[in-house]
């Protein structure tokens, strides 16, 4: 039986990081492919990591999604304490709704 290749968005976040650890612990079943925002750190041996991809921008995603059997989407805009965006609700929707639909 071949391994399932699973892509995890938001791999440097709290939930995404936990998912990555769980999949790597079951490495006989899964090959984890992680996507983290620029500056996000994901430090696990044997992990394919893609950084700097934007959910609303299709550039680069074809390589990250190559051969992927499933996607676990954990990337989200959350816990922004000192928001500097002009319209925080629009930015929240752009990332959390439009980004998920684009993926």
| Number of strand segments | 4
Arithmetic mean of pLDDT: 86
Percent of residues in β-strands = 15-25%
**What proportion of the residues is helical, as a percent range?**
25-40%
Q: Roughly how many Å apart are the termini?
A: 28 Å
Shape: globular
Radius of gyration: 14 Å
Structural commentary:
With 103 residues, this protein is an alpha/beta fold. Helix content is 31%, strand content 20%. The protein has 3 helices and 4 strands, in the order βαββαβα. A 4-stranded parallel β-sheet has the order 3-2-1-4, with helices on one face. It is globular and about 50 Å long.
Care to give the gist of this entry?
With 103 residues, this protein is of the alpha/beta class. It is 31% helix and 20% strand. Helix 1 links the parallel strand 1 (4-9) and strand 2.
List key phrases describing it:
single chain; 103 residues; alpha/beta; four-stranded parallel beta sheet; globular
Any chance you could write out the topology, listing elements then pairs?
Blueprint: E1 4-9, H1 14-25, E2 30-36, E3 48-51, H2 61-65, E4 70-73, H3 88-102
Parallel strand pairs: 1-2, 1-4, 2-3
């Amino acid at each position: 039986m071949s391994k399932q290749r699973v892509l995890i968005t938001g791999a440097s976040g709290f939930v995404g990081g936990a998912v990555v650890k769980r999949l790597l612990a079951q490495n006989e079943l899964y090959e984890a492919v992680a996507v983290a925002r620029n500056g996000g750190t994901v430090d696990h041996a044997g992990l394919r990591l893609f950084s700097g991809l934007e959910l609303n921008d299709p550039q680069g995603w074809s390589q990250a999604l190559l051969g992927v059997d499933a996607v676990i989407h954990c990337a989200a805009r959350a816990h922004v304490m000192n928001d500097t965006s002009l319209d925080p609700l629009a930015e929240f929707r752009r990332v959390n709704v439009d980004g998920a639909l684009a993926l």
